[in-house]
Amino acid sequence: MSDILKAEQVTQAKQALNRLRTGMRTSIKGKNDVIDQVLVCLLAGGHLLLEDLPGVGKTTLAYALARSMDCDFNRIQFTSDLLPSDVTGVAIYDETAKEFVFKKGPVFASVVLADEINRATPKTQSALLEVMDRARVTVDGVAHAVGAPFMVFATQNPVDYEGTFPLPESQMDRFLMRLQMGYPQPGDELEILRLARMSYDAIAISPVISRDEVLRLQALTTQVFVEDSVLDYLLRLVTATRSETEFKAGVSVRGGLALRAAAQARALLQGRDFVLPEDVAELVPSILAHRLALVRQTSDALEERAVVIGALRRILSTLPRPK
Amino acid sequence: MENKRPRLSLDELHQLKWLLGGGLVLLAAWSVCYLDLDAWTLMGLTTAAVLVALVRPDWPARVPAWAHRLVFPAVVAFFVGDLWVTGEVLPAIVRLDLLLLAYRGTSYRQKRDDLQVVVLGLFLIVVAGVLTVSLVFAAQILVFTACALGFLFLITLVEAAEAGLPPAPAVVEPSWVHVRWGRLLRRVRSVTDWRIVTLGGVLFAGLVGVSALLFLAIPRFQLENSLFLERFMTKKARSGFNESIKFGEVTEILQDNSVAANVDVSDRGQIPATPYWRMLVLDEYRDGGFRLSPALRRSAFGREQTSAAVRGPVRSRLGEPVYWTFYLEAGISRYLPLLGPFEQLRFQELQNFRLGADPGLLALRDEPVSMVAYRVEGMSTGNLLPDPKFAALLASGRTPGPLELPSLMLRLGVGEADRVTLRAMVAEITRGEALTAEEFSRRAGTWLGQRHSYSLQPLIPGGPGDALVRWLKSQEGGHCELFAGAFVLLARTAGFPTRLVTGFKGGTWNAYSGNFTLRNSDAHAWCEIFDRAAGAWRRTDPTAGAAATVVDETRGDAALARRTDRSWAARFDSLRVFWYRRVVNFDQRSQVETLKAVKAATENSGRQLFSLFIAAIHGIRAWLAEPWDARRVSRLLAEVVGVTAVVWGAVRLTRTWRLRGRPGARGRRLDPVRAEASRWLRRITETGVERPEGEEIFAELQRLRFGARGTWPEPEAVFRRARRTVRELRRMRRRD
Q: Which of B686, B706, B709 should we substitute to test contact with A (largest number of A Cβ atoms within 10 Å)?
């Protein structure tokens, strides 16, 4: 963060991001806010947990992003009999070479869709821990980098909990943000219905940005300036969650870092090389809510999410914002 | 840019309400300090309990539920017992109020309990105010009202925030009790909009101002007469001003430096150099003390009257009469201090009293429990008090009995051995000559002064016989009562009818309020000896160190100069006098005078302003009429340019200084440029106008406020443009 961004770098970044945003908007109708949030997640180098009902466009969103930035895309359907090696890959013995050769699993892609992640056993879920954190897979003591950029889109159904394994807090903390897609507006849905295609892979999307450009944008994001009073505000928000009696535990240090990175990404996305307090405040529900558990847990995930977000909004309203 | 002000959470509102409620309880409980009631212990306990509850709001939760159930019966039992033992209603009610306040201040309150705190506190303050009519009351009611308004506002906020939540039981520990007061106060400061606070303060000041104006304008009435609070309590007068005194009781009162009375005089030239404020005449000496005999009481005091005015024996003379306005503090005496007989005396309201016309005394029926104000007109201030009735009695030669007048004024009340001693002493004083009362007074005073010094710790030797005679025989020092008592015995032995007078001597002249102040330490005893030739009682002060045994009559400013008090205590007393003059004793006459004074001051100011304006116009005209040559024009231009340059330079310098920041003002303080940018961002937001004119400058200001220093545009240029933009946006808002 010591380097100051140049005005032309910011302008170029803004143009590239506008191209990416426009490209995705042609494929995903009526979800501009969600697209912006996904781009924030991408720029911050984080992973995304999409929590919504089936059939609202989660896979299409991940696919559209991968295609728009000319990256490979893999989809893993998580089930209870899925093994860790089915995700990460496995070392098999090559008769001809007389040695073990690593056969890459589906996680080796720039954009990975972990569909219905909570249907897999905790063992399989935890197989994602290392790759989400370090962008590499270690099999038989050998580390294999998955490449960059790397982004996991995990989805889960908040209503149907039958036969699922809730994600442990350690894994939830590794997701930069949690989003809900929601149903499209009637006008947007009518437009979707008019299209002839049925599935996401039928969508023709041309790349609008290169993989290198994505990496450069991610590097620029880390250079976006955060003024001391904004950092102080961010810290006060995080510590307020730790003294809030409704939460079992407050937000971790990783959560605070995630909020800062996301705020920097939002600033760059809006063509700024500095973070505003609004960047922080706007992102609080999506960055922090999934990291917090209530003392009085409820059986209804939607209700729990609403209570947590309500408490976060209360904290936001009571803390003075830098002006 | 969203500019939403943070708000206090529900718990913080509760904490603030707890703090303010405790403050109200303390403020009300402390009125006992000047109420002069026996409730000090209870007040101390209430203060301690409420302070503890304020410091540790979690402790009331430790009180078991059964204790809360017992509180009400215990308080009722206490009240009934109190009433039974003391028999005084008002003090018992005040103590009951204190107990309830203590309980409410130390237990978790619902909304109705909060309102109870306000009502109980207000009751205590109003009772104290009506009974004492003191200056403290004015300050206290103002502070209490302001705090109570804030408290009620908080109650409303809490109620709004709690809408829909079930009420918490009073004995369960609420979630807000773990308070860090420092943090709370910082939070309050951060959420406070000082503009609103200032507006509230101005409105409150305006309300007080309007109330003061109404007070000036509305007809007078006596609040205490409407409440009849005085009927519910009794008071004891200070020793020394009762109908009987014992020697030695005076020491305590002489060490009390509190104010006993304030006296306003319409003509300061009439104030005697050493005024003797008479309160009570004591004639009968028995059992080592003087008392007001039933005979004198019968003959001197008339029937009880109920009136607001009374005429005295003095008849009016030509010329403007002198008015003396007395403000006698509560708890001094039911006998009013006066310099002598008077023409007329007026009270503020109806009073029950007996007038002693000839001795120049006036006794109220009861001890006043609050300040008494009265105005005396045509008061005699000399050292001779004519008493034709007594002179006639003496001349008639009738001796109806030893305990009747005039024999009583000559009765010694001591044994035969002591009479012999007294006769020997009188022989020593008179040296066998037949003296006039005046000459005897002078010689006896000198004789006493040579044998005894003044002392507040007198020693009366033991032995048989009368104590006063034993003291006379010794060389021990003594205080005024011993000197006066001894003089009475000597004069009566010499055949002069004599009596002892108690009251105040001297006093100080308050240079700030222009009035006389009498303190309890000015309490004094002296004598009046009957001068047969003059047919009058002659004042004589035999106490050692008194200015003159027969008092001189110097008057006027020179005499006042040596009594002038310019100390800080006098400043404070002047406030009290102002309060009495302009508020407590504010009758219709004062009302008219004040309104006239206000009118005159307004007219004078208007006239002065107008004449200043006219003079300025004339000045400008004359200046313009002067011949305009090139030299004058160039000088004028140079002056205009010079002044403009100085102003511009000063503005630039101030701005630069502000943006650079003061030395040592670094650390956690916001960078001056960022602070200035923050101010302009706020101003643009406050215009509420969203126009493209504001967007660009808004972005630049945001960069100055939150951007990296290296990317900043020129701050001063941005602020200049921001100023223009704000002006423009405000104009647009007005147009829209």
A: B706
CA distance B66 to chain A (A): 30
**Residues of B (116-175) whose Cβ lies below 8 Å from A:** 175
The answer to whether the Cβ–Cβ distance between A321 and B682 falls below 8 Å is no
User: Structure tokens of B604?
Assistant: 């004078």
Burial bucket for residue B258 (CB in 10 Å: 0-12, 13-18, 19+): exposed
Report pLDDT for B329. Answer: 83
Give chain B positions within 8 Å (CB) of A274: 702-703, 706-708, 711
Whether residues A225 and B708 touch (CB distance < 8 A) is answered with yes
Task: Convert the pLDDT of each residue in B126-148 to its tens digit.
Answer: 888 777 767 778 888 889 998 99
Q: Is a pLDDT exceeding 70 seen at residue A198?
A: no
Nearest to A149 by CA among A199, A73, A67, A215: A215
pLDDT band per the 50, 70, 90 thresholds, residue B237 = very low
Provide the CATH topology of domain A224-323.
Helicase, Ruva Protein; domain 3 (1.10.8)
3-state SS, one letter per residue, for A214-244: HHHHHHHHCCCECCHHHHHHHHHHHHHHHHC
Nearest-neighbour CA in chain A from B236: distance (Å) = 58
ipTM of the complex: 0.86
The predicted pLDDT at position B290 comes to: 85
Q: How far apart are CA B117 and CA B635, in angstroms?
A: 72
Strands B361-364 and B284-286: unpaired
Which residues neighbour B448 within 8 Å (Cβ) at sequence distance 6 or greater? B483, B486, B487, B490, B542, B544
Kindly report, as residue ranges, where domains of CATH 3.40.50.300 are found in chain A: 1-223
Q: Which residues pair with B289 in a beta bridge?
A: B246, B286
Q: A249 Cβ partners below 8 Å, 6+ apart?
A: A242, A292, A293
Across the interface, whether the CB atoms of A275 and B706 are under 8 A apart is answered: yes
B718: contact with A, CB 8 A cutoff: no
Chain B interface, best mutation among A282, A313, A318, by max B CB count within 10 A = A318
Cβ count within 10 A of residue A283: 23
Residue with the bigger pLDDT between A199 and A305: it is: A305
Per-residue pLDDT for B693 more than 80?
A: no
Tokens linked to B575: 């406030």
The answer to whether A317 contacts B191, with C-beta atoms less than 8 Å apart, is: no
Kindly give, in sequence order, each residue whose CB lies less than 8 Å from that of residue A63, ignoring residues fewer than 6 positions away.
Answer: A73, A111, A113, A200, A201, A203, A205
Contact of B682 with chain A, judged by CB distance below 8 Å, is answered with yes
Quick check: B192 contacting A, CB < 8 Å?
no
pTM of the predicted structure, to 2 decimals: 0.49
Q: How far apart are CA B695 and CA B705, in angstroms?
A: 15
**Looking at chain A, which residues constitute the CATH 1.10.8.80 domain(s)?**
224-323
Residues from A contacting B (CB-CB < 8 Å) are 4-5, 7, 225, 227, 229-230, 245, 272-278, 281, 314, 317-323
Query: Quick check: B1 contacting A, CB < 8 Å?
Result: yes
pLDDT category of residue A1 using cuts at 50, 70 and 90:
very low
Identity at A285, one-letter amino acid code: P
Structure token digits, residue B260? 């006993």
Cβ distance of A321 and B190 shorter than 8 Å: no
Q: Does domain A1-223 have CATH number 3.30.1490.20?
A: no
- Rg value, chain B, Cα: 37
Minimal Cβ distance to A274: which of B1, B6, B703: B703
**Angle CA B302–B304–B310, to nearest 5:** 75
d(CA A110, CA A129) in angstroms, rounded, equals 16
Residue numbers in B near A319 (CB within 8 A): 6
pLDDT at B248 over 60: no
